[in-house]
């Protein structure tokens, strides 16, 4: 009896190559999505940190700011009416100094403080909105709200 040749035929090799190529292309399509999620997560983390810093600074503010509410910091807009800042309200935009630049975009921060109630039951509602642009992914925004009691 003669020896039989062992190995793969050309057809088996081609079918295996096609199956492997399709699987690898499917896997490679996940990389852009993963990168976008990493960039977005990094921006959100930085925005949350910057917003929390502003809220912590405002927690130390006295409750007797007065009706004009013209005390520092310059990005503070006080509202003496109910609700969140209405559209078109004179919100000041603070370019955070020094500017926080990460992956080529700057963060801006807008802050509103609304005093409510009467002593000794006064409280302040704080709204901090951070905006930034993530290059090819577009404009992003992050809002933090806090309530501080007297």
What report would you give on this structure?
The radius of gyration is 28 Å and the shape is rod-shaped. Residues 70-74, 80-84 and 86-91 have low confidence and may be disordered. Strand 6 (123-133) and strand 7 form a beta hairpin. The chain has helices at residues 10-28, 30-58; strands at residues 76-79, 94-95, 101-102, 105-106, 108-116, 123-133, 139-149. It is of the alpha+beta class. The protein is built from two helices and seven strands. It has one domain (10-149). The strands form two sheets. Strands 1, 2, 5, 6 and 7 form a five-stranded mixed beta sheet that branches. Strands 3-4 form a two-stranded antiparallel ribbon.
Furnish the topology, listing elements before pairings.
Blueprint: H1 10-28, H2 30-58, E1 76-79, E2 94-95, E3 101-102, E4 105-106, E5 108-116, E6 123-133, E7 139-149
Defining key terms:
150 residues; alpha+beta; rod-shaped
